[in-house]
Design a protein that fits this description.
The chain is mainly alpha-helical. Helices cover 76% and strands 0% of the residues.
Amino acid sequence: MRGSSPQKRSSLVCSVKHNMPEHTPLIEVLADLEHQQWAKWTAYMLDNMTDERVAIWRRQIEAPYAELSKKEKDSDRKEAWIVLDAVMDHLKG
């Protein structure tokens, strides 16, 4: 799926979602991980709220991934590896 369009990814996700029970063990693992990542980010954001940081975060929200800085992409890649590790651990059983 690397390099695939958002439409192709969305189509694949819809296909998988349609053929899977709503609460599979993997979905629960990923949902738990998503909550942990959200909680960590939200705590960081609330503890570091300044006008300057809000402006940076707003720019990042508007920017497509391809336009992020290397440092910003590295941060997103780090989070992606955490998700991939969780998926691989789950598949290993």
